[in-house]
Amino acid sequence: MWTPADRDLYKDDGRRYPSDLTDAQWALIAPMLSSYDPLKVDLREMVNACLYLEKTGCPWRYLPSDFGSWATVRTWHDRFRADGIWSEVAALLTRAVRRQRGRPAEPATVILDSQSVVSGPQAGIRGTDGKKKVRGIKRHVLTCSRGFVLAAVVTAANVHDTQAAGWVLDRAAEAGWAPVRVKADGIYTGARMEEAAARHGVEIQVSTREAQAKGFQPLPLRWRIEATFGTLSTRYRRLTRHWEHSPVAAEDGISIANCHRLMQAYQRHQYRYS
């Protein structure tokens, strides 16, 4: 139901673009960028430009000039990626948002799944997912129980989910996450999954839909990662298809979108319960 509180929350607040950071969001992440000493650019504008690109999916040379030169934005975009800024911000905000919602900061239960995505005409890796009949790439993603991304690995679409599962768990461990159990669907079985589970000391819990069930049947907890895929590929147009030349750039796009979701979630909760 649309309430006066909702109207106040979503009213036009005077920002140029809806993707621009609010003052509260900028105050939240500014300390994490304090190590930079830019000479001629506004770091907030560089972050705003990165978010604009993910939300709109526009090509680099179509970036509005009020962000500054697109080449300058590209330089800072690539610098943030090389320094791992988005991963650091996401790790801190994921813990903060989970605490806001009464959950332990460190997730014990995580969800693993993949999303096959059609590639654009650019050069780069691609393969065919024979089951889904998609030619392009596959996003292998691990989320917490709230649906926020903990780790992501991009491969060609023909790479089997169990082959990439170990890489995703490795990436999560490098980021400091140590889950106890992993929720996954029926494809995540076999020797490779057992080896990955043993290496990281996690329990793989496979959940499947009933064979006789008709129509859509959401599975407990696992539906959250499906919602995450839907949010990433519909609300962030750069992720609707695979437009990047490298898997690293594609993974960076997921990280930027995830950080934006976390900032919005943190601010929304503060607003409603302050």
Automatic annotation (TrEMBL):
Which residues are in the Transposase IS4-like domain?
107-244
Where do the Insertion element IS402-like domain residues begin and end?
Answer: 21-89
Kindly give the InterPro entries that the UniProt entry links to this protein.
IS402-like_dom, Transposase_11
Q: What highest taxon heads this organism's lineage? A: Bacteria
Query: Any stretches that span the bilayer, and where are they?
Result: none
Pfam families registered for this protein in UniProt:
DDE_Tnp_1, DUF4096
The family database entries (NCBIfam families) matched by this protein are listed as: transpos_IS5_3
This protein is called Transposase
